[in-house]
Structures are given as C-alpha cells and as structure tokens.
Amino acid sequence: MLNIQSKLPGVSTTIFSVMSKLAAEHNAINLSQGFPDYACDPALTELVSKAMKDGFNQYAPMPGNNLLKETIAKKVENLYHIKYNPDTEITVTAGGTQAIFTALAAIINPGDEVIIFEPAYDSYAPTIKLLGGLVKTYELAPPDYGIDWDMVKKLFTSSTRMIILNSPQNPTGSILSEDDMRSLIKLINGTDILILSDEVYEHLIYDGQKHQSVMLFPELRERSFVVASFGKLLHATGWKLGYCLAPELLTKEFRKVHQFNVFSVNSPMQEAIANYLKESKHYTGITQFFQDKRDYFRRLIADTRLELLPCNGSYFQCVSYSNISDEKDTDFSMRLIKDFGVATIPVSAFYQKSTDHKIIRFCFAKENTTLALAAEKLKNV
Ligand code: PMP
Ligand code: GLN
C-alpha cells in the first residue's frame, strides 16, 4: 500500500456531486446543485459552431481572446462606469472556481490568514488550506445572515492577507449593502489586506436593489480581484468560462499562476461569447427572469410546511424545516430525496465546523414546470 500524505485529509467529494448523483439514482427532481435545467440561447450555440468552423480551434492567447476581453471591458463600463484595461487588468478563466483558485494561489503564502463568511461556497476553505493558508471564519447568522463589521475586525491579525466576499451570496441569497462596503473600507484602510470578491451572481439581485460591487469603491477596487462566471450569465454552467478583473499589479501576479494553471481556456467558446455579448440585450433581462422564478418558487413553497428565509439575490432559496423535524440537515435532505423525490443541499455542507441550523438550500434556476412538480412533492413533507 502506497503511503501518500493527503494535502486535504478532511475533504471528501463535494456536496454538489454527491447530491446530483443521489438525485439521479433516486430519480428525484434535482434542485440541489446550482445549474439551469433549460437550454441556453440557440444563437449562442450557433456562434460556437461558427467559431469552430472559422478556425478558432487552437490555443487562445494566454490571458484570453482579445475580442472577449474588450467585450468584458465594455460590459463592465456599461454596468458600473468603471474602466478595466483589457490588456493588463482582465483575464479569462475556466469558470469562477479557477479564478478563485488562481487568485488565492497567486497571493497566499503558508501562514497567511484569509477571512471567509460562512456558510460559504465550498471551494474557498480547501483552496486556502491547500496553499498552507489559515482560514479565519466569521459565522453569519440566519435568517438574515448580516455582517457585524466590528466582529470582523476582531479576526484581524498581523497575518491577515485577504478577505473573501461573496455578494449575492451562495448559499444564503443575502447581499452586501452600501453601508457594508463603507464599513469594510474603514476596516481595511491603512492595511495591506487584499479582497477576493466573488461576484458570480452580480445580475441576480432582486426588488430593485443595486449590486454593490467592490468595483464601485476606489478604496476597494485598488486591492480587489473580482471574479465573474459566464456559466451564470449565459445559463451555460457546463462551459466553465469566467473571468477575473484586477488592477495591473494584481493581474500580473494572477497571470503568473494562470499561465501554469491552465495557460489559456476554451478558444471557440471565448470567440462565441465575445460575439454574443456585443449586444447588451443578451444580459439586460436576466435580473427580471430570475426574480420571476424566485417569486414563483416562493409562492409554491409558501403552500408547504417549509419556512422561507429571505432571498435578496442568487438563484438559491433557503428554507428552515425546524418546525417539521429535528433531524440533522443531511438526514433530512436524504429523506427528501428517497421518500419525497426532491434533491436539495443541506446548508451544513457550507461550514467547516459542524453547524446545523436545520436549513436546506434549493436552486430555483429551473423550468417553472420543474419547480411546480417539486412543490407538489414537498407539500407531502
Ligand atoms: N462562486 C460561487 C459563489 C458559486 O456559487 C459558483 C458556482 N457555481 C462559483 C463561484 C463558480 O462558478 P463556475 O461554475 O464558473 O466555476
Ligand atoms: N455553484 C453551484 C452550487 O452552489 C455548483 C458548483 C459546483 O458544482 N461546483 O450549487
């Protein structure tokens, strides 16, 4: 027997793979892993075929297809009135997850501390640990999952290197307000702390609320890696394409890692996305589209015994089942799959420490018929 020393001894297969596999095995409606069950725009897939026919079949430039980087710069300028230089400040990545990994790998040395807000997207903590960094956790409290910045400050030490933000947040659907951003600015003023701002759900923000991107605040922008995902924007999570925006100084470090991590990413899809996004109409309707889905799903869930938590953003809806059962959330989710035919994510999976608030997460990026069918089953719970 080979004796290998695991670099991540406490880590097993991600909850997303586990739940999607169980959903398939039990023929359950899969509202667990976050991905749409409807097709992306056929015009977009046509553009991929065209790019392949047009010969975009060899390596793209290392930092990304030039047209795509320019298109991203224009989109960002349209939305936030901020200019990022396509040559020196924008890098196309193999999805948001690679951008997160690469930004952390570029910055974190053994012993550096990174502050994260839990429940958190499950790649943050293992990536930090893999790099020899230390995870400092701020625990968000349901139902609102707000942040007390004075308590965040208590986590600061001389080794604090980075803070990871995620707004709109996965899994809680909470968002950061302008006040949050101003508090953060005060906190990091005079420090060298960097920010990794995971903004993959930037468009999925509801009820007229404004996405408070770190880009909008010069004091934050100058020290931030901003991560975005075309998977969310284009209803094409399987394409695994995204990007990272960062000032030149940070982008230089990012690309030092990126070039050896993946070198460059899928060429025909980059060309296709660039041509597709030249027309901004392809993303202006996305907020309303998902708000309608959120509202529809919340109305359906209101007819069950599950208790809705707030959802201000993302395509996730959390619910409490504490009035139904005191089972562990992992057991309750298993029972939902096996006995009721609906797959969800137990929110304890988004914490490192064992933390069970009796809350599960649904993904509502699904056809309304799928959501209605799931709700019919959930009425029996
Ligand atoms: N960050 C968050 C918060 C996410 O939910 C996801 C999920 N898919 C990602 C990053 C990664 O996006 P991608 O699929 O583009 O890697
Ligand atoms: N972000 C998606 C979710 O939270 C899935 C990402 C993944 O499967 N790695 O469900």
Which labels suit this protein?
381 residues, alpha/beta, Aspartate Aminotransferase, domain 1, Aspartate Aminotransferase, domain 2, 7-stranded mixed β-sheet, 4-stranded antiparallel β-sheet, binds glutamine
Notes on the protein architecture:
The protein has two domains: 15-36 and 285-378, Aspartate Aminotransferase, domain 1 (Alpha-Beta Complex); 44-281, Type I PLP-dependent aspartate aminotransferase-like (Major domain) (Aspartate Aminotransferase, domain 2, 3-Layer(aba) Sandwich). 39% of the residues lie in helices and 15% in strands. It contains 15 helices and 13 strands. A seven-stranded mixed beta sheet has the order 2-8-7-6-5-3-4, with helices on both faces. The protein has a four-stranded antiparallel beta sheet with strand order 9-10-13-12. Bound molecules: 4'-deoxy-4'-aminopyridoxal-5'-phosphate and glutamine.
Short recap of the structure:
By secondary structure, the chain is an alpha/beta fold. Helices cover 39% and strands 15% of the residues. α8 (218-221) links the parallel β6 and β7.
Write the layout of secondary structure elements.
Blueprint: H1 15-25, E1 29-30, H2 42-53, H3 66-80, E2 90-93, H4 95-107, E3 113-118, H5 124-130, E4 134-139, H6 149-153, E5 160-166, H7 178-188, E6 194-198, H8 218-221, E7 224-229, H9 230-233, E8 242-245, H10 248-261, H11 267-276, H12 281-284, H13 286-302, E9 307-308, E10 316-320, H14 329-340, E11 342-343, E12 345-346, E13 359-363, H15 368-378
Parallel strand pairs: 1-11, 3-4, 3-5, 5-6, 6-7
Antiparallel strand pairs: 2-8, 7-8, 9-10, 10-13, 12-13
Helix pairs in contact: 2-11, 3-11, 4-10, 13-15
The protein binds 4'-deoxy-4'-aminopyridoxal-5'-phosphate and glutamine (GLN).
Glutamine binds near residues 14, 16 and 33.
